[in-house]
Design a protein that fits this description.
5 helices; alpha/beta; single chain; 20% strand; Rossmann fold; five-stranded parallel β-sheet
Amino acid sequence: MPSGARVLIVDDELCVRDILRRQLESRGYSTAAAGSAEDALARLGAERFDLILLDNNLPGMTGLKALAGIRRATAAPVLIVSGHCDDELARDAKLLGARGIVPKPVDMRQLAALLAELLEAEP
């Protein structure tokens, strides 16, 4: 796992953001959080991240709708995190530039392995 890789966690639920933050930081990642897609886009305009975890079901702009703006702002891989994963969401997410989908509740071992794989593949 790349040491200190910076991950932006985008989720409207504070408890989800806190759990992911604690788990990722215990594995050596540096994290930042946003409670909406709009907040995430603002952060991406001011900061650099190595990977983005993006909830789809957000107030205001959904994660899928935010993907175009995120792709314009950064080349960092994006994973959609959702409690409502299905084939249509997976297809749409990939078409819009996401690297994959992580179902909620999140299995942290699987997520950590996926993050390490994606970050090692990045130039």
